[in-house]
């Protein structure tokens, strides 16, 4: 990275057009100005690079606020000395993850596909004795070369995984723009295309959740990560009483659910899709419990009472139920 490149990055930083990676590099430089009182190294030793690497990797990528620019041009000599370190930070940010690279190499080579339809659940046993329970309307694709370098699968829908421990072959699930990496644990992943969120909930062990090579979080038991695919943001939640995988026992508890989540759950359990053009229904949040023991018409009646709406069908044999 040349000196003129740093100048351009600072200009982009100031006018708000810098990318997250570019903001990260400028943030590192600003921090170095704050630490100017500390003695600068006479030489960039391997130990100094190692310490700097750890500091860079521990930084928060997105700046919470713009730093004051009053000292922007006071020490260009110091900035020039820091250019090798800024180049190092750029490299560390974009350095490819070996597990993701291995996954990408085999992603298009599908060895086997498991699939469920509406009102259907399925338990499958993978070659390494990992147990996967598929929820309704779910597809699981097992990648070619399973257990050779990684144990890779692609998920569309929802599944509960009980992964067999194998430290030499990480288990990686790709679904809903997230990569979930584990060695041996049990957890639930929800990644339906029709929902804006991808959710990961851990029961035992630990999992690492990433998006586009960026590690978002490491989850421990009873922790949940909800990733908004539209905004590219996520939030972490504590669940003392996990309900994310209650569908396995035939119960789904919705808490402040969107209409899309309500519709997806109804479709999973009863094979019918709830649709609406009512802006109020699309905006509202819903608290309701689904049970397999409740018949379709009884569950629909509960939803009508909850929403204070009526329904119709486009055709008698249609799977779509229109709320209005």
Short structural summary:
30% of the residues lie in helices and 31% in strands.
Task: Describe what this molecule looks like in 3D.
By secondary structure, this protein is α+β, with helices and mostly antiparallel strands. It folds into 3 domains: 3-94, no CATH class; 99-238, Sandwich (Jelly Rolls), CATH 2.60.120; 250-323, Phage tail protein beta-alpha-beta fold. Helices cover 30% and strands 31% of the residues. It contains 8 helices and 18 strands. The chain has helices spanning 3-15, 20-34, 46-57, 76-94, 98-106, 259-270, 279-283, 296-307; strands at 110-115, 122-125, 131-134, 139-143, 151-162, 171-175, 178-182, 186-191, 197-204, 207-211, 214-219, 223-228, 233-238, 251-257, 273-276, 286-291, 311-313, 320-323. Strands 1, 2, 3, 4, 5, 6, 7, 8, 9, 10, 11, 12 and 13 form a 13-stranded mixed sheet that branches. Strand 12 (223-228) and strand 13 form a beta hairpin. Helix 1 (3-15) crosses helix 2 (20-34) and helix 2 (20-34) crosses helix 4 (76-94). The longest helix is centred in the first third of the chain and has 19 residues, at 76-94. It is globular, with a radius of gyration of 25 Å. Residues 35-40 and 56-74 have low confidence and may be disordered.
């Amino acid at each position: 990275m040349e000196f003129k490149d740093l100048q351009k990055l600072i200009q982009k930083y100031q006018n708000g057009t810098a990318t997250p990676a570019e903001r990260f590099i400028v943030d590192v430089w600003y921090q170095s100005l704050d630490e100017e009182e500390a003695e600068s190294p006479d030489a960039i030793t391997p130990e100094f690079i190692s310490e700097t690497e750890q500091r860079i990797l521990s930084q928060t990528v997105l700046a919470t606020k713009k730093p004051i620019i009053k000292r922007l041009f006071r020490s260009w000599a110091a900035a020039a000395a820091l250019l090798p370190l800024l180049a190092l930070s750029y490299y560390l940010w974009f350095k490819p993850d070996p597990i993701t690279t291995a996954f990408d190499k085999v992603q298009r080579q599908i060895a086997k596909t498991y699939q469920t339809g509406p009102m259907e659940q399925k338990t499958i046993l993978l070659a390494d004795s990992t147990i996967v329970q598929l929820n309704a309307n779910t597809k699981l694709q097992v990648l070619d070369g399973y257990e050779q370098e990684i144990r890779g699968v692609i998920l569309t829908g929802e599944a509960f995984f009980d992964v067999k421990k194998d430290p030499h072959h990480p288990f990686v699930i790709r679904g809903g723009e997230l990569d979930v990496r584990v060695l041996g644990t049990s957890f639930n992943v929800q990644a339906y295309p029709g929902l804006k969120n991808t959710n990961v909930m851990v029961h035992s062990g630990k999992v690492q959740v990433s998006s586009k090579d960026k590690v978002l979080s490491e989850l421990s038991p009873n922790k949940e990560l909800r990733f908004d695919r539209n905004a590219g943001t996520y939030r972490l939640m504590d669940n003392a009483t996990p309900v994310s995988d209650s569908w396995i026992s035939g119960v789904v508890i919705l808490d402040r659910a969107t209409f899309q989540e309500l519709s997806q759950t109804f479709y999973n359990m009863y094979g019918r899709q709830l649709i609406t053009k009512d802006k109020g229904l699309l905006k509202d949040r819903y608290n309701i419990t689904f049970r397999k023991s409740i018949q379709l018409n009884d569950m629909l009646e509960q939803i009508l009472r909850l929403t204070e709406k009526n329904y119709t069908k486009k055709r008698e044999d249609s799977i779509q139920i229109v709320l209005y």
